[in-house]
Amino acid sequence: YHARAYFGQAMHTLQDFYAHSNWIELGQTEPNTNIGSGIILGKYASKSMPTCKNCNSTDCAKDNILPEIIKNGWLTSGYFGLTPLAKKPLGKCSHGGSADATTDEEATGYGINKDYATSDHGMFYHYDAARVAYEATKQKLSQLWTQFGDTTFGRFLGLETTSLAIAIDTTGSMAPYIELVKQMAIRIVQSTTGDSAVLRPRKYILSPFNDPDYGPLLVTTNAQVLIDAISALTAFGGDDLPELYYHGLNEALSVCERDSSVFTFTDAPAKDAYLRSQVLAKASEMNIRVYSFYAGVVYIGRRKRQSTGTTDSIEALDGSDGHDIASATGGFTMGIQAGDANATAEYVMGRLARPESILTINLPGSTNLTFEVDDSITVINIDVSSTQILSGSVELIDSKGNLLKPTPIAASNFFKLYKIQNAIAGTWKLHSYYGGKHSIELSSDTSISCTTTLCEVHKGHAIEYMPLRDAPLVNQTDLALLTVCENLPSNITKGSVKLINNQGTIITELYPSTFGKNGFITSIQIPDVDFRMLTTVTLADGNNIQRQAPQLISPTTIKIDLTNQPYIITGNTTLNMTYTIYNRAQTTLNITLCITDSMKLLNTTEKCVSPYVIPSQNSITDQLPVSNTYNPNITTSVFTFTISAPANDSVSAPKVTNYKTVTLYTEDKTYEEASPTNSGLILLTPLCSI
């Protein structure tokens, strides 16, 4: 996944060569094969050489590059600046566009960028530039394919690269449950190997955790090897009830592919909840869902200070507060007991296929729900789960007013699975008669998806929307929601995004500021409670489409930013990473920073900094020194900056947390001025993603 992301960034630069330079205007119709090779790209126009003429109308825009530049084949590109202070050398071309301040400098007016068909030169050359950029990208992909072969190249493209991970608590308190857990885990693995398997993972992972140790981590491509390893597990040791749950989960996530599923089994709270933000950061970035099976009794008290003189961060894992890591990633938390293995495996198989979510909520007791069914939905899945023994039923009223009283097709004391066949499009109602805390997810195997993503907005010569990689701040207003729908039978005519809390209550309903035929953009002010995003669109054919992002988003009042990027480190040097921590809470907070580094450039698994005392609405800036003895065999790693503070400085209260990831590169050779006979080469190897 990271390799594919970095390759995409590199291809953006490659494609910009054709969109921003005059390669196309010079009459070139094929890619420049010297790009990325360290060889000079052609004849460059010097800094003092004028390249464009003044042009303030479309009449001269096509030929605003000076004739002698074209005649002699000089390469040039457009200058770009966002502020009036932006300057360019006299007579140079501008990038162009309303956001480019250099267009007021000689040469004035139209620029030479071809990003869009409506850009300054795009109206003349966009499609030629796009075609050559497309061919150049194909060439680079073909080179990778030839160099690394079918298997590795297929993994690079994300073909059949999901993982199935099992994390099992093996402490002594699990002795009454360990055989049941092994049986259930094996059935989950077996469900991915038959002819009817809905998921065929490329990797199988086992991550046992104990106390005070965890591991060893097993990674294999052979399902039977994983089954044998699970069968050999025994319950032993453990000095106290809380366990190293997040260490086991974090180990599994460190080797998972994107879009993977992780199943955890435990009977106790986590004592290492200080790793929660790091785990959530990894799971969110890789779109990994965590499914938690809990064999213990409800744990009273979310976090506490141990009496041994050490401070552990304790978190209940029984789903009792609806804010567990499984809910945050779009998974579930469920109880287990003897005899559940086969039924639970069938329940899990339905989740492995990742059907489109219509609605997901956590309920304190019985309730009424309303939801939309569109023409693409013929079967409705209704999943009810809990860590408490379930007692009750569900009833539905379909869009025609018919009362339905379904019976479960699979069940245990802790889950019920219903399927409604031949669903009729329209507005439906569901009444849950289940008492006690439980979760309900409505889903369907449908070809129509509508995905809403919380995004950062980057304003340059074009507005870009990038998925937010950390937790949003309470009341933050500079983010946006990007909704994209696929496989729609007709265009969108209207839509909205409801922010709903964990119980399904609507916090606010947001309406688009910008519309397209397959999606829209919505402004947002982040609420002060956890929320999910429920998207509803109306199509030109009258269909109402309802889809929900299953992940639970937790706003925060603290934030960390890493500045002076990108970070590039050479061998045997030290790099200072500059970070700023912000406190947007209404009170002074003691904020602790911890950095984890699996490649151990910090010479430790985890480095924590003494708490920063930061007053309300203030910030503090500091630096982290990172040293590197260059190792050419080192691979991409992850640094995670995690910040946390007790709410109201109370140890027993839930913590306020956030996290940040930043890319770090190694440079193995100093760049030298390129020439046709003596060319230097920068090799930037992705090393750490923080």
Automatic annotation (TrEMBL):
Keywords: Secreted, Signal. Residues 2-153 form the VWA7 N-terminal domain. Its main location: secreted. It comes from the Eukaryota. Residues 163-334 form the Hemicentin-1-like von Willebrand factor A domain. It is found in: Secreted. The keyword Protein biosynthesis does not apply. Pfam families: VWA7_N, VWA_4. This is Uncharacterized protein.
